[in-house]
Each structure stands twice: as structure tokens, then as C-alpha cells.
Amino acid sequence: MTDVSGLPAGAPTFAALDLPKTLTDAIADLGFTEPTAIQLEAIPALLAGRDITGIAQTGTGKTAAFGLPMLAQIDPKLRAVQSLVLAPTRELAIQVAEHIESYAKYERGIEVVAVYGGAPFHTQARALHRGAQIVVGTPGRVIDHLERRTLKLDQVRFLALDEADEMLRMGFAEDVEQIFSHAPQERQVALFSATMPSDIVRVAKRHLNNPVQIAVARQASTVTSVNQTYAVVPFRHKAGSLSRVLATSDADAAIVFVRTRSAAEEVGVELVARGISAATISGDVAQKDREKIVERLRDGSLDVLVATDVAARGLDVDRIGLVVNFDIPREAEAYVHRIGRTGRAGRTGEALTFVTPHERGKLRNIERVTRQQLEEITIPTPADVSAHRAKKLLEKTPERLTRGRLELYRDLIEAHLAESEMDPIDLLATITALNVGDTGPKLLDRRDETVPDQHSFVEESRGSRKSDRGDRFERSGGGSRRSGGGQRYRVAVGHNHGASPKAIVGAITNEGGLAGNDLGKIEIFQTFSLVEINTEVAPEAFTRIRHARVAGQMLRMQVDQGPPSRGGRDRDGGGRPGRGGHASRNGRQGGPRSKGKPRAKRY
């Protein structure tokens, strides 16, 4: 097998690069067999103690190019930070940390910590205090930890700058300089950049010692045997849309790609809850369990696999006829690798990418790099699912007819027709509808804009409480009550806690990775506040916001469900808008007024 680097068969293997066996075993488990061009040049140089500058695009394998030699030099007995990787964005920091963790699966005593804005500071500080040897972080949050003395770099032996040009473009030049000043003069540096502008050249001259210069071209080719499509799907409707896509697909098996391990678990659980035969693999799944799951996929006892990019490395199963990018990949190379899991062994395959309304730019970048224009499609409706299942059912009737032994059913049908005087076609249509789970029109959840009609299908026939429920993310990060164009949320801080609009906005945007203009009206009451958010909140971001603090009080954000049917207090002791002497929707409050503070302020 050749990696996406495009290296020819017979190229050197990782075993020939003098890496420790623990590392070569780990990358073999991930499906890597031959080093990419950047790995082939960078790993020997770094193992020899040289500094390097690498001109390489994202997706060329540069994380392993510096991550593997970095791990080879870590002393697991020394409980101090020995290596630091700087990345321009939170998403890249998380991704790099997860990849390094997957390479270190057989390295005992080595801990990797990702530090970035939008996540609780103290959680990261505790992880650093436990003695992590490798830190992957964004410059701003690394500076925060340095200033608060929760991070020390006096034992650092290895520094890596990933996407250095992007870091400087985002204004992190001074932060990078400050971070370097905290590290010892005797250290090894690996600098990777997609381009080498003059600013990067100056950084290299100032901080690198006689570096080996490496440049590799981006390798991205289209997969001609795969029909590539996309659909615009709001985040909170993705799981519902995915279930309908899978229900109407003729593929023998499918892979659903997500960005993170937590998302893989969420999506896998959701599919199983909807009655779909699905399993999940990610970087922390043990090799023996991974092999069992892949074998089930091969033998037909499993139909859908939910996977991260790292976990799907080396996966080669001929049954896979459909790839769904539940999360659009960050780079074109990852996209090519994903869709390459289908269309194998001379077969054609299907690849569908979910794109939220704000991600069209990422889609255009993939089209530009792959020189392939994706066709936009619409997500199947529940009516489409019912029609698909009915068609499949009717296709089985000729074979069943030839097998005979239908007298019992003929007699029952003739008797029922005589009794009820039903039209035979109406009876056949009704039996077919019942067989595919269509129990007739009912009130659907109107929040799911992808469902324009009231037809139902098997997953929806389990009762009205589950009828086209969208997905788990809607329950956790979406919501049911809207004011104007945004979703209204309740947070457990108010006047009594010293809450201010600035503090609430700061906590939500910092922890949730949102922009200030994503927030709308804010109403502050005595013991709680109502906040309007005008964009979808991802489940991971929702969890972070819930645990964020304002004035020492945890936000515990939740979807505002409106006035309760009875007066009283919430479990947290705060009043809710409505009856019982608590604040009403207009910001007024019944009962005695406390002195000196208004009951509600709108901002």
C-alpha cells in the first residue's frame, strides 16, 4: 500500500528510519506502511539532532515528520515539559495532539496535553501539573500558562512550529518570540510552513541553527471512480440527515468521517439509537478491537463505520460503497484520503460531504485543489426513505412468489376484502406502508427544516417522542425556543452574582469559539440571565460553555424552555421567567422587589 504521498512501491519503510520499535508498531497499527516525502527527509535529520525548515502543505504527513522523532527523544521518567508544538488554531492543536497520542500508544509514561483558548484553563493547568512531557498549544494560551507559571519550558529540548506562516499572518509573531525566550538556548527546532515569506526566513535565521532545508510538493489527486457530491446541512440537522442518507443508499457498507474522537462516539451512538448497524473507531480504540470491527465490516455483520481520519488509515474493505464526510475535512489531502476508502477493486463509489452554510469556502478550496467540482444534492426526506424501502420490498416479491406456500395469506386477504369491502390496491398499499414503518401522517418536529412533509419511516415509527428528532446535537447544543432569529439560552448567573453583559459575552465567546456578533439580546435577572445566540453551537463547545464561569459562578447553560407551568424555583435555586413571583418575559417580576437592583436588564 502506498500512502497519499504518492511514493512508488518499494520505497523505504518506517522500519528503515531507525525509529524505536514502539513507534513503528504504533504507526503500523494506524495503517502507515511507507513514509511520505516530508517524513523520508525530516525524520532522519531530526533524529540526528539537526534543526529543519520544511515547506510543506497540511496533509503531507508533517505531523508524523516531527512527532515521531520528538517522541523518540522523550524521557518518560522526567515529569516535565520536554517538547512544545505551536499551532495557529485550536482545531489544529487538537488534531496534532491526537495524532501524537496515537503514535505514542506503546510508549509508557508519556503524556500529551493540548492547551488552547476556548477550553477551561484550570483543567489544562492540572494536566500540566501532573507532569506532561509534550505540550501542543496555540501561542496565546501558551503565553497565558507561562505568565501564570502553570507552564515551564526550562526542560524543553524540542520546539516545533506548525503552519508558521499562518501563525504570523494571525499576528502571533510577538507571542512566538516571547515563547522562544522562555526555552533554553540549547534546543532543537523544527519549523514547518506552507510558504517561506521573508518574515519566516527571519524567524528561521534568528532561532534555528544551520537548519536542513526541506521542500515537498502538495500531493492531491482526484479519485475518478467516485461520484462526489455535497449537501448543505445545518449542524443540528446532520444526524437526522445522515440516517436518511444511509437508509436510501444502495451501498453494501458505508464509512462516516468525523473530525474528533468525541464526535465519533456521539455520531455512532446516535446511529445505533436509530436502529442502524454502526460501530466507531478512533485513535484510542485498541488494535484488537479495531481488527474485530473491521472484520465485521468485511463479513457483512456491520454496515456503517464511524471513524476519524487517523483511525481509518490503512482501512481497505471492498464492501464500502459510500463515504459520508459528516464533518468537512480541513484540507484537500484529507478529503482525497477519505473518499479513497470507496470505489475500490474496479467498483464505483459514492462520496457525500455535509457542508454547513458557513463552510462553503472550505468546499471551494477542496474543489480548487482537487480540480473536481462537486455536485450539490438534496437530503432524502422521510417520504423518500419510505419509497426506497417499499421499492426494495416489492423487488423481493417475485422470488417469494415462486417459493409458494401462500395459501394461508390468500385466504386471510380474501376474507378481509369480503368483510371490509376494501379496494385490493388500497389494501396492498396499506400493507406495504405498514411493512416499511409508515404509520401515516403525524405532527413532525418543525425545527428540522430538512423534512418538508409528514411521511414517516422505520426510525420514526417508534413513537412520536422519537419522530424525526433531528439528532443528539439538537438536544444538547440546539434548542426548542427561539426569539427573533436566534436561539435563547439560560445561564445560571445574574445580578446577585455580579454578572455583566461583557463578562457573559466574554465567557461564551472564549469557551465556545464564537464571535461577538454571534450573540444577540442579553437579559440579566437576579439569579440567571437569558442569552440569544444566532448560530449553531457545536456539542463540544456547548459542554465547554456550560462549565465556564462568570464571577466565580458556573454558567450551566441550557436551552431556555420558557415559563414553567407552575411557580417555583429551579434545582439551582434561581428563578425562571414566569409565575410564582419570578421574572416574567417582559423583565418584570412579581412579589417584593429587592432594593437597589432592577429585576432585569436588556443589553
Describe the structure.
The protein is an alpha/beta fold and 603 residues long. The protein folds into four domains: 14-215, Rossmann fold; 226-380, 3-Layer(aba) Sandwich (Rossmann fold), CATH 3.40.50; 384-466, no CATH class; 477-602, RRM (RNA recognition motif) domain (Alpha-Beta Plaits), CATH 3.30.70. Helix content is 36%, strand content 15%. The chain contains 21 helices and 22 strands. It has a seven-stranded parallel β-sheet with strand order 3-4-2-5-6-1-7, with helices on both faces. β10, α12 (287-299) and β11 (304-307) form a beta-alpha-beta unit. The protein is globular and about 95 Å long. It starts with 20 loop residues before the first helix and ends with a strand. Residues 1-10, 443-484 and 564-599 have low confidence and may be disordered.
